[in-house]
TrEMBL record:
This is Mitogen-activated protein kinase kinase kinase NPK1. ATP binds at residue 35. Residues 6-250 form the Protein kinase domain. GO terms for molecular function: ATP binding; protein kinase activity. The chain crosses the membrane at residues 372-395. GO terms for biological process: signal transduction.
Length: 414
């Protein structure tokens, strides 16, 4: 659905081609990311990215949500992928090879889909892979340099980031799907060496000599073999993404469900690794479950508290051993119920463990109504007795009865 009314939030990233902010759709609260550009130099790249993302439909690529022009800025609205970039993750703590393989697999899947659609990414590197809640929800982003295989006008010219460029791209030839495969090999080395491109080979050696990026010694033999398949000097000799997905480095699905823990609650909510499996089968996502559940809980008659596995954990009504306070008077007995009531928390609390989450509901009881009736009754009694006291006072004066005078003075009327 088209997003028309949205609000820009804080800045979550900056690149050479624009600024990325968090944003939300004012009509339904959906959170997304917006990349904005406002100069001629940057708008061109953003226009290209908009065109390419619009045409791609892959669960491994950041999803296009819309585009517009507002306040003199060209905007690309896209799915928000929490967790920062894979380069940041690799720089933070050394990555185990299993994690490197999981991210490499996601990038290979994204490239397979892009290449099938005739798109060459042209800037594959760990900084352009958004980590997601865990490696099996990472997404390939930043298609600003992307080109089409058939797009003669856009082909050629230096595109991408120098250290990750394939020899043919360094030489200024048209980038091919195989050029992305070279960059994927560089990205694997980068992830295995803490988010750095550690090779010191010059671009001239890569483009025109025999130079090759240095393979990290920490990688297993399978890893080194995978890189060798990517870093072949001749593009036509490199493996395609389809072939690489069959390579033992990527073929073994290490991403056992539940293996990766979300780093924050928001990551768990946004974690869309359940959205679709690799065969394209739709599965229910964590965020969908949470949304549906909230709608169900706040809806009328959506939940039957007496059944559906709910348990009463607090009950301020009759028969409650802790909270039952018949008078509803908070000042007399000081029971837990009263303190509870004073804090505005009186009521019926339900708790249910569902999908590993504790769900709570607090319902306000009619105790406050009872309290009102009680105070109203006491006040009425005092008002009804007032004429009686006045009559006694007058009567006492007129007759001069010492007894009544004594009684009245006892009550402080004189
Ligand atoms: N969809 C997104 N969800 C979350 N964060 C994002 C998203 N898109 C971009 N970012 C953040 O914004 C940063 C810059 O985005 P991006 O790389 O697309 O911009 P760029 O100007 O094209 O960068 P570059 O200089 O690498 O070409 C990213 O590194 C990332 O931290």
């Amino acid at each position: 659905m088209e997003i028309k009314n949205w609000v820009k939030g804080s800045c979550i990233g900056r690149g050479s081609f624009g600024k990325v902010n968090l944003a939300f759709d004012a009509s339904n609260g959906q959170i997304f990311a917006v990349k904005s550009a406002n100069s001629i130099a940057t708008v061109d790249s953003l226009e290209n990215e908009i065109r390419v993302l619009k045409s791609l439909n892959s669960p491994y690529v950041v999803t296009y949500l819309g585009d517009d022009v507002r306040f003199g800025e060209r905007n690309l609205l896209m799915e928000y992928v929490p967790g920062g970039t894979v380069a940041d993750a690799a720089a933070k703590s050394p990555m185990e090879e299993a994690e490197v393989r999981a991210y490499a697999r996601r990038v290979a899947l994204a490239l397979r889909d892009a290449h099938a659609a005739g798109v060459v990414h042209c800037d594959v590197k760990a900084r352009n892979v958004l980590a997601g809640a865990n490696p099996d929800s990472a997404k390939l982003a930043d298609f600003g340099s992307a080109t089409r295989v058939v797009d003669g006008a856009r082909a050629g010219g230096l595109r991408g980031t120098p250290l990750w460029m394939a020899p043919e791209v360094v030489r200024g030839e048209a980038p091919l799907p195989a050029s992305d495969v070279w960059s994927l090999g560089c990205t694997v080395i980068e992830m295995a060496t803490g988010g750095k491109a550690p090779w010191e080979v010059s671009m001239v050696e890569i483009g025109y000599g025999e130079g090759l990026p240095t393979v990290s010694a920490a990688l297993s033999d399978v890893g080194k073999d995978f890189i060798e398949k990517c870093l072949r000097r001749e593009g036509r000799e490199r493996w395609t993404c389809e072939m690489l997905l069959e390579h033992p480095f990527l073929a073994v699905d290490l991403m056992v469900r539940g293996r990766w823990s979300p780093r924050t609650v928001i990551e768990a909510i946004f974690d869309d690794d359940d959205d679709e499996d690799e065969d394209g089968t739709e599965l229910s996502s964590g965020s969908e479950w949470a949304r549906d559940r909230i709608v169900e809980l706040v809806g009328d008659g959506g939940v039957v508290w007496e059944s559906e596995g709910w348990e009463v954990v607090r009950w301020g009504g009759e028969g409650d051993p802790i909270g039952n306070c018949l008078s509803g008077c908070c000042f007399c007995c000081g029971c837990e119920c009263c303190c509870w009531e004073e804090e505005g928390m009186s009521g019926l609390e339900h708790e249910q463990v569902e999908n590993g989450m504790v769900v709570r509901d607090l319902r306000v009881l009619s105790i406050s109504e009872d309290l009102f009736v009680y105070h109203f009754f006491v006040l009425s009694c005092w008002i009804m007795l007032l004429p009686v006291w006045i009559m006694i006072w007058l009567f006492g004066h007129r007759l001069g009865t010492d007894f009544l005078k004594t009684v009245c003075s006892g009550f402080g009327f004189f």
